[in-house]
Amino acid sequence: xxxxxxxxxxxxxxxxxxxxxxxxxxxxxxxxxxxxxxxxxxxxxxxxxxxxxxxxxxxxxxxxxxxxxxxxxxxxxxxxxxxxxxxxxxxxxxxxxxxxxxxxxxxxxxxxxxxxxxxxxxxxxxxxxxxxxxxxxxxxxxxxxxxxxxxxxxxxxxxxxxxxxxxxxxxxxxxxxxxxxxxxxxxxxxxxxxxxxxxxxxxxxxxxxxxxxxxxxxxxxxxxxxxxxxxxxxxxxxxxxxxxxxxxxxxxxxxxxxxxxxxxxxxxxxxxxxxxxxxxxxxxxxxxxxxxxxxxxxxxxxxxxxxxxxxxxxxxxxxxxxxxx
Length: 325
Known about the structure:
single chain, four-stranded mixed beta sheet
């Protein structure tokens, strides 16, 4: 046993033993809580809970006591952190907030459908170095010359809800707006008109990065969106500017999208089982397998290959295993 454990154990034992007496714990909180909480606290509701939320790195130097209670008839937690180490911790404010969120997360797991209760923390310190030499203000834990954390910690969390941003605004945001708009409409029953509208807004494809981003966008639209007629989508893209149209055709040729679309259409028209049989005779199934192999060689996700080629998951997995072999 190291020195810290030998020192802290008798302190922990004595302090916890006293706090288990409701008469003592009630008097303790009445003495040390701010008047707002004292006036709202029902002392008879104080219950010392058994679980600890202290992480392993703090257990040698700190103990915790968590009390459930009622504040003006509403459930709440009072947490008491008891620091025994003689050397103060410069990040104690951060550790305390981390601890409070651990308490709240534990409550959330136990009561997932309830609102979080309020939680209050006190630090009880009897170390040798006094007064406590470090700030207990969480903001002082950061090296933050432009006060970013003031906004992060004490303001509502900023949110980008693409459904609340008008399409006309998104169309002014180049690639950022294009991806945002794609994600806004990705669950549409038919994605084609939205996809074309998005592509019309893109800036010039005058460098390799822009062309790569276009291919990434097309892959996302085809993989996650409902573009049910790939041939129709490619034909409709002819209304786009020539550089954009050329890149789409390049992408289509790379993925052999036209052959895929025909194979899917034939399979649907003949029925799933019959379509496979007929497709073999006409070379459709063979073409689908070839397309699937090419896509897998390009590193395309198997789920995307299944979606685009119409092959079964088992067939695609077999092809992938054959390639690895």
